[in-house]
Amino acid sequence: MFVFYFIELMITPILMVMIGMSWRNNPPKTINKVYGYRTTRSMKSKESWEFAHRYFGRILFKLGLVITVLTIVILLIFKNSNDNTLVKVVLIILMIQVIAFILPVIPTEIALKRNFGK
User: Fold this and answer.
1) What tens digit of pLDDT does each residue of 4-59 get?
2) How far is the C-alpha of 1 from the C-alpha of 83, rounded, in Å?
3) What distance in Å separates the CA atoms of residue 76 and residue 14, rounded to the nearest whole number?
4) Which of 25, 51, 65, 79 is 20 to 30 A away from residue 31, measured at CA?
5) C-beta separation of 27 from 61 below 8 A
6) Residue 3 and residue 5: Cα distance in Å, rounded?
């Protein structure tokens, strides 16, 4: 079960790193309602769209690296735990990863407001 949990828990941080790398260097070309960092502020202009993706991408990339290392360390610490403990640890890690994926929205929106006004 440990290998399954390890693979499962590496999906989110790897996605964070990949999306972060992609967006910080190469944001989506056009403003659209399907793909990208889509908020009211980010979609106001081409400049705000590119700024938001680069800013969000930088944070997501760094946070993804940190979450990757923390996930591996925590899993290794609990590797030999019983199944109940391991399941609880996995659920806690998953919740932390989801929060970490969403968290960069806050500083990105603050930066958009500061740089592009209301």
Assistant:
1) 999 999 999 999 999 999 999 999 999 998 999 999 999 999 999 999 999 999 99
2) 8
3) 18
4) 65
5) no
6) 5
